[in-house]
């Protein structure tokens, strides 16, 4: 089963200063934080803020290549979680054929935003993510769990990338 999600915002992990993209299901019942790289966070932020750059950035180029090949991004799916690493795939439609391409979630999300494609997460990934790191018995994990549980809507976008 897949859960449709939207990008709720970007924030920084208060412990590591690593960017986190926050996905929230369309029913607003579940939240999924995914730690990403700074460059990918910047690419997502540029699209969320609708900031255009003088030259195409990598994800703009990907979108333009897909459109130029008369294809379209039909959806992206965050489909696995192994050893605290998320995995995703990009679903493309081209000439009546379906093509599935392996991707990092951050790249898939940046492309989905540019292509107006839906973002899905497998329910298995959401269930696994509940126990990543925060189930470990240590002070840092407890701090992170407390911070994630207390995130408020006004916290999104609070941090500059």
Automatic annotation (TrEMBL):
The molecular function terms in GO held by this entry are: nuclease activity
- Using the record, list the residue span of the signal peptide; answer none if the entry has no such feature: none
Q: Which residues form the BFN domain?
A: 2-133
- Family matches, as Gene3D superfamilies: Bifunctional nuclease domain
Q: Any stretches that span the bilayer, and where are they?
A: none
A Pfam family of the record is BFN_dom
List the PANTHER family: VON HIPPEL-LINDAU DISEASE TUMOR SUPPRESSOR, VON HIPPEL-LINDAU PROTEIN
Name by which UniProt lists this protein: BFN domain-containing protein
Q: Which organism is it from?
A: Candidatus Moduliflexus flocculans
């Amino acid at each position: 089963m897949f859960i449709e999600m939207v990008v709720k915002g970007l924030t920084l992990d208060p412990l590591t200063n690593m960017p986190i993209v926050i996905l929230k299901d369309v029913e607003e019942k579940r939240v999924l934080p995914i730690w990403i790289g700074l460059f990918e966070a910047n690419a997502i932020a540029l699209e969320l803020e609708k900031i255009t750059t003088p030259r195409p950035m990598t994800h703009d180029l990907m979108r333009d290549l897909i459109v130029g090949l008369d294809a379209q991004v039909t959806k992206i799916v965050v489909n696995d979680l192994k050893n605290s690493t998320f995995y995703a795939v990009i679903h493309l439609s081209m000439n009546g054929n379906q093509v599935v391409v392996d991707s990092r979630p951050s790249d898939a999300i940046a492309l989905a935003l540019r292509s107006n494609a839906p973002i899905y997460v497998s329910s298995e990934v959401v269930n696994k993510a509940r126990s990543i790191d925060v189930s470990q018995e240590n002070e840092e994990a407890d701090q992170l769990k407390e911070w994630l549980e207390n995130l408020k809507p006004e916290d999104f976008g609070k941090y500059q990338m």
